[in-house]
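Anyone up for a design puzzle?
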């Protein structure tokens, strides 16, 4: 009797069963088993003095892997889980369990592609690398990968005009697994050297990892609450679960694909309502694609201080300044509130990210890579291309080299006029009236006493003179 073909699927940032081409393709011939490796390098200390992946993302990852395991079992297969380097684990599993081929989704940045190469170099069976992390498929772009336009609008207009988004690949109906393999245990967060997360009821959303949660969130944002109808006008909000979609953590872990979201948005447009807001969701997802394709074009330049511009820069790198920013002790409430939200929940709004990044890179004149690495550590939705690409953009070494910066106080006034957001994350300012909430150091000593806060003791004085920092920024170019 002929032995059936055995495929090992190496899962990475694609922790899903729907719109998963490798899984679907493997399911069409022979048996299929999944593998996820908790790579210890993901949890190591970085040269900046903090871990590469901190607790919020690690917890989300654990939940996502757990759910993927359950989904594969429901389909008739299994997920093998190991702690170790993929280039050591994958060849062992292939050899010990006589797999005939390896399928996986390819990544684009060097740490990930180096691991891929080591894995494929160390196996003697066939392998196939798939493309599955963008909305527009790489093969459908109307330009060569290395010559994507350097201006986002040109990229967007061309893909919108000359390309189309493929339909998601359906989930396999049934898989044949191999129940003789010991599947192993998902590590607890402590096993990864991290502290368990403390839920905080100030979080915009209690994020839980996994494919089912991703779909629940998608259905909620589109068909149940219909919040997507106002997305374009609410997306810069700071408080509440639904001002923006919050799809990012699930997208970053691949619990859902951008293609599936696109497909559901188009269904919503067809069946319920189509307007500029429903379009805007697709527009933002093009930004996500753009940063990924840019990472292919520019390779490791996206991680360099001078960015894709190759600028020569000489920026600050002292720990004291950095720690004030990272811990939310700058004395600028709008920045501090955002950083404390990030530290407490693993999430920060897009508006917050822009301001926090601009403050570090521009006002503090600091090496932006420290900030990008810090976001990498803390963000629940960390995505290498979106994070480093957006940071570079805000540090004016990315795709828009203009001397762009945010006026933090204007932004605070525009997006948190009454100071509700700042008071939520800086309880020491809870009694400070609207007039002073974004500049509490402007209160007299008597006003401070009245509002039960001593500036310089309960809440820091501003670490820099903001006005002077803007003069410095303006004089740079
Ligand atoms: C300094 C900085 C760092 C960032 N780091 C990350 C990161 O590590 N991971 C990440 O997913 N996003 C990152 N972003 C982009 C953006 O802030 C988040 O995608 C967004 O806040 C996530 O919330 P949401 O899902 O509710 O977004 P929504 O506004 O609902 O947007 C829907 C989706 O569109 C995509 N998107 C929206 N804005 C952007 C953008 N500017 N760039 C790329 N994709 C976008 C995301 O996938 C997002 O989930 C960063 C932005 C900045 C300024």
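Challenge accepted. My sequence:
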């Amino acid at each position: 009797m002929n032995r059936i073909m055995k495929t090992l699927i190496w899962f990475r940032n694609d922790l899903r069963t729907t719109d998963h081409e490798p899984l679907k393709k493997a399911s069409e011939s022979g048996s299929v088993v999944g593998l996820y490796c908790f790579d210890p390098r993901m949890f190591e200390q970085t040269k900046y003095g903090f871990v590469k992946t901190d607790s919020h993302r690690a917890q989300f990852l654990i939940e996502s892997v757990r759910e993927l395991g359950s989904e594969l079992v429901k389909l008739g297969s299994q997920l093998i889980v190991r702690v170790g380097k993929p280039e050591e684990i994958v060849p062992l599993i292939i050899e010990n369990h006589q797999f005939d081929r390896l399928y996986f989704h390819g990544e684009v940045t060097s740490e990930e592609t180096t691991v891929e190469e080591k894995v494929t170099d160390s196996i003697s069976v066939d392998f196939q690398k798939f493309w599955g992390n963008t909305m527009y498929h790489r093969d459908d772009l109307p330009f060569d990968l290395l010559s994507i336009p350097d201006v986002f609008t040109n990229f967007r207009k061309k893909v919108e005009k000359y390309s189309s988004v493929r339909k998601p690949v359906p989930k396999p109906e049934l898989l044949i697994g191999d129940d003789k393999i010991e599947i192993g245990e998902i590590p607890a967060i402590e096993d990864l050297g991290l502290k368990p997360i403390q839920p905080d009821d100030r979080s915009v959303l209690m994020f839980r990892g996994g494919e089912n949660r991703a779909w629940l969130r998608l259905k909620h944002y589109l068909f149940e609450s219909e919040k997507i109808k106002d997305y374009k006008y609410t997306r810069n909000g700071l408080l509440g679960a639904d001002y923006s979609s919050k799809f990012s953590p699930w997208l970053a872990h691949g619990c859902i694909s951008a293609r599936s979201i696109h497909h559901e948005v188009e269904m919503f447009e067809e069946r319920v309502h189509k307007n500029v807001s429903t379009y805007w969701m697709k527009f933002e997802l093009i930004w996500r694609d753009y940063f990924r394709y840019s990472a292919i074009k520019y390779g490791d330049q996206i991680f360099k201080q001078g960015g894709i511009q190759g600028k020569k820069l000489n920026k600050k790198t002292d720990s004291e300044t950095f720690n004030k920013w990272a811990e939310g002790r700058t004395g600028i409430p709008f920045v501090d509130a955002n950083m404390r939200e990030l530290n407490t929940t693993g999430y920060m709004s897009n508006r917050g990210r822009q301001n926090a990044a601009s403050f570090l890179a521009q006002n503090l004149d600091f090496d932006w890579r420290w900030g990008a690495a810090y976001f990498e550590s803390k963000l629940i939705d960390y995505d290498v291309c979106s994070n480093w690409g957006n940071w570079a953009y805000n540090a004016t070494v990315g795709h828009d080299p203009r001397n762009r910066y945010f006026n933090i106080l204007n932004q605070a006034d525009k997006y948190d006029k009454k100071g509700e957001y700042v008071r939520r994350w800086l309880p020491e300012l809870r009694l400070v009236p609207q007039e002073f909430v974004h500049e509490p150091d402007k209160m007299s000593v008597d006003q401070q006493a009245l509002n039960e806060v001593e500036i310089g003791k309960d809440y820091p004085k501003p670490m820099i003179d903001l006005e002077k920092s803007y003069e410095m920024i303006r004089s740079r170019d």
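A detail worth pointing out: Residues 276-298 form the longest helix (23 residues).
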